[in-house]
Write a structure and sequence with these properties.
It is built from 2 helices and 2 strands. By secondary structure, the chain is mainly alpha-helical. The chain has one domain. The protein has a two-stranded antiparallel ribbon.
């Protein structure tokens, strides 16, 4: 396996992992909105810290809303971090792939020149 083929495979893998990060963001958004809607619709007088309901009532719905909201926020943050990480990793692989491709092209050009020079003699 050539180094350029290895880099190409790793870039594809990073692209796949980046897509997984985007899916985590979408799933986190769904959980966050679901948790907020659950809290607003079922709890009579919720107490909020920014967008996180922190006052638990005797109803299990308040705990469910808090759980969905926190899981949603965690998934969104995790998805953003993973997407950024794999995007940077893929850009590094692509840069190295371009460098490897240019060195392979230089080697090919040099071998062609040397073959032409041998023919001219």
């Amino acid at each position: 396996m050539l180094f350029s083929e290895y880099l190409h495979e790793k870039a594809e893998e990073s692209r796949h992992n980046e897509t997984v990060g985007y899916f985590l963001i979408v799933i986190g958004s769904i959980f966050l909105v679901g948790g907020l809607l659950e809290t607003v619709m079922t709890v009579e007088d919720p107490e909020w810290f920014l967008i996180i309901p922190y006052h638990l009532t005797p109803h299990p719905y308040s705990l469910l809303g808090l759980s969905l909201t926190t899981v949603g926020l965690v998934l969104i943050c995790l998805g953003i971090a993973l997407s950024i990480h794999y995007t940077r990793q893929r850009s590094w692989y692509m840069k190295e792939l371009q460098r490897a491709q240019s060195t392979e092209e230089l080697k090919l050009i040099r071998t062609r020149k040397s073959k032409k020079e041998k023919r001219m003699r």
